[in-house]
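Long-time lurker. I teach an intro course on protein structure, and each term I like to show students one example going from raw sequence to a predicted 3D structure in token notation. This year I'd like something fresh instead of my usual example. Would anyone be willing to generate the tokens for the chain below so I can use it in lecture? Attribution to the forum is fine with me.
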Amino acid sequence: MRSGEIQIRVRYAETDRMGLLHHANYLVYFEQARTELLRTAGWTYKDLEDQGFLLVLTRFEVRYRRPAYYDDLLTLRTSVERTTMVRIDHRYEVFRASDLLAEGTSTLACVDRDGKPQALPEFLRE
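-- Reply from a regular --
Happy to contribute to a lecture. Here you go:
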């Protein structure tokens, strides 16, 4: 579960008046990539939440290099860069063919239902 790759086609509703993928949608794409990475390990966010493990976003950073356009087929590469007892750091790269369009990083913290930090499930720390 250390890394994975998905493809997403830019939909018309995700673009702005210039036909570019709106910058806010990169965060949605990154979340989708994280979700699929977790799924490849045999888990879902619902599974975690049902067990009382909530993953909250504490930091996000994106560097936009080139625009994506309506109907582009994008490849998102996601990797787990680091885990601690309560945090997971991810790295993202967005490509159109071989062109790097954007890259990002995020930090998720594990909290309980009261919002207090708690240890990540062991399988996420491996």
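Some talking points for your students: Helices lie at 24-40, 45-50, 122-125. The longest helix spans residues 24-40.
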